[in-house]
Amino acid sequence: DVNAAADLSTTFVAMADGSSFNVKLYIYDLSKGLARQLSPMMLGEHTSIVVYGEEFFFGGGGIMSCFPGGTILGMSDSTVDLGNTEVPRDLFQEYLSSLRESTYRPEKYHLFEHNCNTFSSEVAQFLTGTKIPSYITDLPSEVLATPFGQALRPFLDSVTITPSGENGMNGYGQW
Amino acid sequence: MAENSGTDPAVETNTEENAAASATIIKVTVKTPKDKEEIAIAEDSSVAQFKEEISKRFKAKQDQLVLIFAGKILKDGDTLGQHGIKDGLTVHLVIKTAQKSSSGSSQTSASSGPGPSQGNTAGTANPSPAGNLGTPQGSGPSPTPTQPPNVLAGFGDLSGLSNLGMGSANFMELQQQMQRQLMSNPEMLSQIMENPLVQSMMSNPDLMRQMIVANPQMQQLMERNPEISHMLNNPELMRQTMELARNPAMMQEMMRNQDRALSNLESIPGGYNALRRMYTDIQEPMFSAAREQFGNNPFSALGGNTDNSGVQPSRTENREPLPNPWGPPDASAATTTTASGTATTTSSTTSSTTPSVSNPLGISSSSLGNGMFNSPGMQSLMQQISENPQLMQNMLSAPYMRTMMQSLAQNPDIASQVFTNNPLFAGNPQLQEQMRQQLPVFLQQMQNPESLSVMTNPRAMRALMQIQEGLQTLQTEAPGLMPSLIPGGMAAGIPGAPLPTGVNVTPENPPPSGPAPAPAPTPTPTPAAGTNTAQQQLMQQMLQMFAGGNALTQTPEVRFQQQLEQLSAMGFINREANLQALIATGGDINAAIERLLGSQPS
User: Fold this and answer.
1) CA-CA-CA-CA torsion for B505, B509, B514, B520, nearest 10 degrees?
2) Structure-model confidence comparison of residues B107 and B583, the more confident one
3) What is the pTM of this model?
4) What are the beta bridge partners of residue B241?
5) Fewest 10 Å CB contacts: which of A66, B443, B504, B558?
6) With pLDDT > 90 as the criterion, what percentage of chain A qualifies?
7) Which InterPro entries does the UniProt entry name for this protein (chain A) (predicted)?
C-alpha cells in the first residue's frame, strides 16, 4: 500500500523529530459482539483517543489509559484520524492531570452528558483543534430527547461504562 | 486603541509587533482544563503578548503557559494571526506545574500498560494500530496508521503471539489479549475452535490440562477447591469440557442452568457446600445415569453447578450437554462410570424389577438436591449402586460424604429443614414431626460405620428394596393389616445390621422416605393409606431399634426362618434354593416363590 507506506513514513519522520504526533479516535461500536451480551448499553458507542501510542478514555474510573486496543473491548471497530498534534506527551499528561482534577473526575461521569465521548471530544479539540464526528456526540442528546430517554434518566445517571483496561492513569486503576 | 487604519503597511508592521497597536481587538477564549476565560487581545498580537495577558488573568507565570491551538503549540514568537486565531475561537492553555522534562517516560512506562505484544511482536501481524509503542517520545516504531481490525488478523495475531509473545510476555497477558479479541468478535471464538491446530490441542487433554494448570488463577482455584484438580486429572472430563467449549450455545445453556440451580441450592445453608463436594466425585455415575433418564432439572442442576461455580472463571465448564430428558429410560445407562475406582459397574439392569431404589443417603440428599434423589436418574444410579457395593462404599467413604453427614449431625436445623423440604414428607406433617424428633438418633446412625458397611452389601440393599416394596403393596392392599404386620415384619424383615437409611424411593408413590436408619421398609409409603399412626409407630420402632445400636447380624437363615418354613410348607423343599430366593427377594415370599418357579430347579 503506497498510502500506508506514505502514512507510515510520515509518521516515522514526524515521530523522529518529536514534533508531531498522530492522533486517532477509536470508536467502539458497542452493539455488536460479546460486548453487547455482556453489557447492554444504550449508548451505542464508546470512544477513546489514541496518541503517543496510548489509548486514553474516560470511564467510571476516571481518565484511564492503556495500550491501544487494550481494553476489554479489544480493538476498535473504526477509527478516525484526527490529524497530528504538536503537543508533546508530557504536556498532554499535564493537561490530563488537570482534567482529572476538574471536570473529569471519576464521579463526574455521566452516561449521557459527560461520558467517554465527551472526553474524547474535548481531548481531540485540545490536541488537534478538530472535533470528533458529531453523530457520536449527538447520540446522547438524541436519546435523552425521547420520552424513553427521559424516563430512564435516573437510572442512567448511575450507570457508568468503564471498559477495563490495563490500568488507569496515575493509578486510578481499572475495575 | 482601536485604530483601524490598516492601510499603512508601516503601521501594520508596527502593530504586528506591538500588542497595544491598532489592530482589532478580538475576544479569544482561553481554556484550561479547569477554567475558561475570555481574553480580549489585539488581533495581531504576538503570542508572547497574548501570554502576558493570560498570565495576568490566570495568575500564572508566563513561562508556565503553554498555548495550544489546532494541535499546534503557540510559540512566543508567533502571532495570533499566524495561527488563524480569530475572534470567538478557543485556545487551549496548559499551565505547567511540573518541570518540563524532556521525556515523560517515567509516566509513560507507568501508564502504558503491559500489552502483550508490546515491543515484542513489533513485526507481527498486529491488529492494534498504535501498536507496539513502548516509548512514546518519538522513538521506536510508529503506529501503523492503517489497521486491519479484522478477525483473521486477530487470529493471526494470536498465533503470531503464541510464537513470539509467549516467550517474553507472560501467559496472563496473552490470555487477556485473547479474551479481548474474543470479546470483540464472537465469530472469532468459533473460528478459533475450528482451527485444526486448536482442535488437536483441545483433544489432547493432557495439554489442555497443563495449560490450564499453568494459569495462576487456576492454581489459586485449585488450591481452594481440590475437586478441580480432580476434575482436571480426569481425561474423560477434560474431553467433555472441550466438547462443551466448542459449542458456545451449549455452554450458554449450561451456564444458565447452572445459575438456576445454584440459586436453588443456595437456599440451603451449609448443606449446599457439603453437597457440592459430594457431587463432584459422584458426578460421573450421576451423569451417566442422568443422561438417559432424566435431564435438566435437579440433576444437571447439581451436575452443572458444584465446583463449576468455582471453575467458571477458568473456562473449564465441563458439563456435558444437558441430558436428554426424553431419552429412553434405560437403567443400563448407568453402566459407564463408576465412582472413583470401582472396577466394573455392573451394567446390571436386573434390578429393574424394583422401581424403587434404596436411597442410602436418605432424605437429606434428596431434598438438598431438590428431589434429586427422587429423580429416575438418581434411582437408576441407586440401583447401580446397590448392585455394586464398591461404588457405594466409595461414595460413602469419601470425605465429603462424611462431611455432609457430620454437618447434618451437627446441625439439626439443617437436617430438619431438609426433611421438611423433602417432598416425601410434604403431605405428612405428623411424620415430619416424628422425623424431627428422631433426628439426632437418625444422624447418629448415619455415622455408624456399620451402617456403612451394610450399605455395601448388595443383598442387603436389595433386601431393603424388596421389603419396601412389599410393605408398600401391603399398605395399599390391606391398610389395616399394617400395624399388625409391622412388628412381625420388623423382626423378620430387618436384616439386622443397621442401615443408615433404607429409604426406598418409588416413583409411583411419594417415596416412602424412611430415613429410618433401618433397612428400608419405611413404613410410610403413603399417608393416604390412612395408617399414619402405624407408620409413625413403625418408624419409631425402627429407629429405636437402631438407636439401640444393634448389630444383630442374623444369618439369612435365621432371618427368613418364617419364610423358609412357609416355603417348605408350600412344597418348595429345596431349602438352599429357598434361602437364596428369600435372600434375593429380601424375605418377600411371593417374590421368592416366583423366583424359585422361574428358575425351575427340580
Assistant:
1) -60
2) B583
3) 0.34
4) none
5) B558
6) 0
7) PPPDE_dom (IPR008580), PPPDE_sf (IPR042266)
pLDDT in tens, B50-88: 899 888 888 888 888 888 888 888 888 888 888 888 888
User: How far is it, in rounded angstroms, from Cα B37 to Cα B92?
Assistant: 10
Q: In chain B, which residues have their Cβ closer than 8 Å to the Cβ of A12?
A: 142
- Chain B hits for A38, CB-CB cut-off 8 Å, are 183
Residues B496 and B559 sit within 8 Å (Cβ to Cβ): yes
**Could you tell me which residues are beta bridge partners of residue B42?**
B25
Q: Give the closest-approach CA distance of A172 to chain B in angstroms.
A: 10
Per-residue pLDDT tens for B141-172? 333 333 333 433 334 333 333 333 333 334 44
Phi, psi of A55 (to 5 degrees): -110, 125
3-state secondary structure of B443: helix
Cβ distance of A11 and B143 shorter than 8 Å: yes
Which residues are within 8 A (CB) of B59 and not within 5 positions of it... i.e. 6 or more apart?
none
> Taking residues B520-541, what's their average pLDDT?
45
- Distance (Å) from the alpha carbon of A65 to chain B's nearest alpha carbon: 6
DSSP B294-317: --IIIIIHHHHHTTHHHHGGGT--
Contact residues, chain B, for A167 at CB < 8 Å: 110-111, 113
A80 interfacial to chain B (CB closer than 8 Å): no
Give A 110-149 residues with CB within 8 A of chain B: 125-130
CA–CA dist A82, A92 (Å, integer)? 16
Residues of A acting as catalytic residues: 46, 116
